[in-house]
Design a protein that fits this description.
Radius of gyration: 20 Å
Number of helices: 17
Strand content: 5-15%
Strand order of the largest sheet: 9-8-7-6-5-4-3-10-11
Shape: globular
Largest sheet: 9 strands, mixed
Order of helices and strands: EEHHEHEHEHEHHEHHEHEHEEEHHHEHHH
Number of strands: 13
Structural class: alpha/beta
Length: 428
């Protein structure tokens, strides 16, 4: 029996598939202190991915992100989902087909974004029932979680919830609408009462970053039953994005250091999406760790990178992974020798310009499409400021973090030789 210390209490971790097992594996991944540990975790999943990459002659990701729908019952400030048509969705049959393809390739984790994925809660339950060996999770605004749905989660076991919250009641309602904070807290109470291992998900920006990184907020999230957390740095995607919400280098560094210290001190797992490059070994997009399929079927490197050259309605998942854009994207990884500058959108903006051009990709942003050059232009100044700060932070990190990244880069180059380069050499 596996165990995990959650909020000071030793918890039993049931075998896969189970929502608690997902939390257990996430902590193991982000707490790996050596490449050997990384390679052998979770029944040698990393080695299996390497073998699958050789077999299919392309990178096979661990995680598939997918938008069942673009519809949402909220209209949050700064959220690009509000720019999308509220009528786009992937049918149950198409979702089932995509997940079946993913399982054949060896992909075992499906995360759902949107839109609000629980607008499709009945179809999600059906998918979880049918694909029992797949772990599912949804990033949700939590307003549609009720007692009945929570009981279904207990029955299923393979469905996880990541509940969006922006800090205090005032900060959450500022972006998400009046009364949303209270609904999120109620949903947490419902899930906690059933001993479900859920997570909080917070987007931090220039107006709430201190709250999100505070001991008071994080302690409260743990008290409400959150087994771990996700943090996302606000990214100004879309031509009408609010640039004032974007964190500067000092604000981002503040979050990185506070969160890192909190996790070590409390043995708690928080996935700080842009500041955990040293733990995730750089950018994981475009099949290197995950891919994203939006509600129109466009296959994108990640949920924040709205560029594509293939659509799942026209090609198979395997062919999408082998596409010229994804191949060019992986060839450019890592985008920096500093893992704290992993992202080509916000850390190395010239990176996204180059790969979009080389892969002949187009913008998939619905109402406000923007070129890679336009997106990069918004981020150059902050990227240069972050470059200086990131070098300072990386030099002060524990030795194993500094040593692991070069080792992992060698592994990444090996993956290229056994997948993309092998396909190119064999003209597949």
């Amino acid at each position: 029996m596996r165990y995990l210390k959650i909020n000071g209490e030793k918890k039993k971790i049931p075998p896969f598939p189970h929502h608690k097992f997902y939390v257990y594996c996430s902590r193991k991944f982000f707490m790996a202190k050596s490449i050997l540990y990384h390679m052998t975790m979770n029944r040698f999943i990393t080695i299996k991915e390497l073998i699958n990459g050789w077999r299919y002659k392309t990178f096979i990701p661990r995680v598939l992100l997918i938008d069942p729908t673009s519809a949402c019952n909220l209209k949050c400030k700064g959220c690009w989902a509000s720019d999308y048509s509220r009528t786009d969705h992937l049918s149950y049959e198409k979702l089932d087909d995509i997940i079946t393809q993913a399982r054949k390739l060896g992909i075992g984790d499906v995360l759902m974004t949107g839109g609000e994925p629980l607008m499709r809660k009945d179809d999600i339950i059906k998918l979880c029932d049918k694909h029992r060996r797949t772990t599912f999770a949804a990033f949700t605004n939590a307003t549609m979680i009720d007692e009945k749905f929570a009981d279904e989660m207990v029955r299923l076991g393979n469905l996880n919830m990541f509940l969006s919250i922006e800090g205090t009641k005032e900060e959450t309602d500022f972006r998400r609408g009046q009364g949303v904070y209270d609904k999120v807290i109620k949903a947490m109470d419902i899930l906690k009462s059933r001993d479900i291992g859920f997570a909080f998900s917070a987007c931090y920006h220039s107006k709430n970053y201190k709250t999100i990184a505070s001991d008071e907020f994080l302690d409260y999230m743990r008290e409400k039953g959150c087994w771990f957390g996700w943090l996302f740095n606000y990214v100004p995607v879309g031509s009408d994005a609010d640039l004032e919400l974007t964190c500067n280098a000092e604000q981002r560094a503040y979050v990185q250091q506070k969160i890192s210290n909190y996790c070590i001190r409390n043995e708690y797992t928080i996935v700080d999406f842009w500041n955990n490059g040293h733990l995730a070994f750089g950018c994981l997009a475009a099949g290197n760790g995950f891919i994203h399929i939006n509600s129109k079927g466009d296959v994108e490197p990640c949920a924040f990178c709205h560029y594509s050259d293939s659509n799942i309605h026209e090609v198979s998942l395997l062919d999408a992974l082998r596409s010229p854009f994804f191949t060019a994207f992986r060839k450019a990884q890592p985008f920096s020798s500093n893992p704290l500058r992993a992202c080509p959108l916000v850390d190395v903006p010239e990176g996204i310009v180059n790969v979009v051009k080389e892969g002949n990709a187009h913008s998939t942003h619905f109402n406000n499409p923007e070129s890679a050059e336009t997106l990069a232009e918004k981020n150059y100044k902050r990227a240069e400021q972050w470059k200086i700060k990131a070098e300072e932070l990386f030099k002060n990190m524990p030795p194993h973090n500094q040593k692991n990244f070069p080792v992992f880069l060698k592994y990444h180059r090996f993956k290229k030789r056994t997948s993309d380069e092998r396909r190119k050499n064999q003209n597949v």
